[in-house]
Amino acid sequence: MEPVSLPLVPAPRAWLPAEGVLAVAQARITLAEGTPHQEEFDGSEVPGVQAESYRLDITPTGIKITAEHPAGVFRARQTVRQLLESGRTEVPCGVIEDSPRFAWRGMLLDCGRHFMPLDTIKHTIDQLALHKFNVLHWHLTEDQGWRLDVPGYPELAEVAAWRTQTDGSVYGGFYTEQDVREIVAYAAERFITVVPEIELPGHSVAALAAYPELSCTGGPFEVETQWGVHADVLCAGNDRVFTFLEDVFTYALRIFPSRYIHIGGDECPKERWMACARCQQRMADEDLASEHELQSWFIRRMEEFLENHERRLIGWDEILEGGLAPSATVQSWRGTRGAIAAARQGNQAIVSPTSHAYFDYDVAVTDLQQVYTFDPVPPELNEAEARLILGGEMNLWSEYIPPARLDRMVFPRMTAMAECLWTAPEERDFPAFFQRLQPHLAWLTSLGVDVGPAARPVGVLADFDPKTRQHDLTFIMDEDLDPDTFALRYRILPSDLVFDPAQLVEDQDIPSLTTSDPRVTGPIVMTDQMDLVAAQAFLGTLPYGVPTVAKLTRHLAQGIAPVLAVPASSRYPGGGPHGLTNGLHGGQNYRDGHWTGFEGVDLDAVIDLGRETPISHLEIGCYQGATAWIFLPEKVDFFLSNDGQTWRPVATVGHDISNKIQRRIIHRFEAKVAPEEARYVRVKAHSLITCPAWHPGAGGPCWVFADEIVVR
Predict the structure, then answer these.
(1) Residue 690 in this model has a pLDDT that exceeds 90
(2) Which terminus in the chain has less CB density within 10 A, N or C?
């Protein structure tokens, strides 16, 4: 970067934003005597805390950097970029002494489920560098795709890298040696270490599709099109498996200089091993008491191989089961208990729990404030044990995240994670962070980053009195939002505004709320002319997240509690007794409180309208999320009755939607019938009852989810 003259003015006071998450350096920068210049970094070692420390002296004539390592110089330059974000031409004078709290500040990018082009990966690396991360954890192999072209194993690129979708299209891709070296070099220029992950012994169906002889059964297999945990894994009793793995890792070690190598080790079902004669013989030969010990033996064998090549193994916290390999590093994802167990055994740990660090989770589940509370060090650890926590990672699993959605899932939450991994908890303040964040996000947008919402914290409940025909809507802020800090505001929207509850709010043209909109102080009474209302949380004058929009569907059965043949699950009550007739539809998030769930049974509901009424239209909305064991009913039967005893079938509505489709689907089963008088309406949605044979939960109960029964 060529230095550019930039006038800097004295500040009335020193400004020391040690944790800053801000952004385009164009200052006159000099290096203090003895400070190393930007020199080659091969990415083999994750830069340590001391290596990334630096000092900035800002005076009216320029900026001086002092650091002990080129990594510190680079991090200092990012701070200068942040100070000068959005074209700012002057910054306060002062001294910034800065140092990261953790040596490991990473992001997992899953390229197995969705193949990410090189430009997408470089774009991600650029953002990691700007926000002072130093590890890209590159997830390269999965049941749904093997992404590494390995010499001597051509079928990995020709077969394992491609899957045939439910619509018949072929999807996939792989990275050549040149591709990998290009990414590793690009990251190293930014002092980011690329840590590859090659999954074993589970999550290996794509490899087995290419080389079925590596399985317990011999196959044949196809590259998986379904997410989840699959039974077929690498055979622990077959020596050819270890020849294959050692060949793959020998190649990987040649093109990835990282000292740390991730081998996965998570979610490995044991049923194939239990039925495999070779695996059982291996257990006998090695004096192993269980299949969990067999997996531990498998991991230790790979650890020994990596150690012989002067590399260190990382595995997900399942590698603790059956005995932890002596020098393995544990990545704790099922909460922090894996990190606690590893540290107490003297092993290093990286912390990335689903509760704070899974950025494939919708912001309705894990919002910006939740991420900001993350602390990788479990409070249960003593001082010596805490030193074994290397740091943390944000994980971006790509089941539902094609390249076009990546930015929206990562931002703005990456900024909160950056501050958590750089700054001590006692130095953090969320309202102040959120205030600082606004110009930064605007600047990121100008740089081409597609920033998603920070949160969707507002819930809504509907109450309808059939006697008075009065609708009350109650908006509820997330319980984690302090009502003394956050305000909830609402606006009645025009009834002719087009709004589809089945679509994401942020993808629709919803007017922005402002602080001039009234605060929510209690239930909102909806008159006959009011069908749409939006509510949003505010932090001071700043909107937090996106609006929640409630769309009332007015119909004859509204507010009448259905009589259910089998009660709804207590886990998904869908708004209680009136949930199926409260006038509100569920959205893309099946946990939004509007979906009523029935596990392993049909939905069978009867509604008493109170008097005979002409009926010409019946419908019910249902949800499909195959990875959550939720499937559309095979069909829906609609019945009418005058006495509640004798039922007249008036319509059966089916569908042609494959239950193998991975994306979330909301489908409305609608029946238009010749008008006839009836008092009672019965709706029966025929569940699959059990998950289909192809599904990871095959044979176990599946769900029917419904939102609103509409009668007109």
Answers:
(1) yes
(2) N
CA dihedral 486, 487, 493, 498 (to 10 degrees): 10
Query: What is the three-state SS of 16-43?
Result: CCCCCCCECCCCCEEECCCCCCCCCCCC
Q: Cα 371 vs. chain centroid, distance in angstroms? A: 12
Query: What pTM, to 2 d.p., does this model score?
Result: 0.89
Number of residues written out for the chain: 712
Residue 127 phi/psi, 5-degree rounding, is -70, -35
Q: How far apart are CA 616 and CA 638, in angstroms?
A: 12
Query: Going by C-beta distance under 8 Å and a sequence separation of 6 or more, which residues neighbour residue 38?
Result: 70, 73, 74
pLDDT in tens, 294-316: 999 999 999 999 999 999 999 99
Radius of gyration of the chain (CA): 28
The angle subtended at Cα 159 by Cα 158 and Cα 162, nearest 5°, is 100
Burial class (CB in 10 A: 0-12, 13-18, 19+), 494: exposed
Q: Alpha helix (H) ranges present in 412-523?
A: 413-422, 430-446
The helix (H) or strand (E) run that includes residue 615 is strand 603-624
pLDDT of residue 11: 34
Q: What percent of the chain has pLDDT over 70?
A: 96
Longest dimension (CA), the chain: 94
Mode of pairing for the β-strands spanning 145-146 and 62-66: unpaired
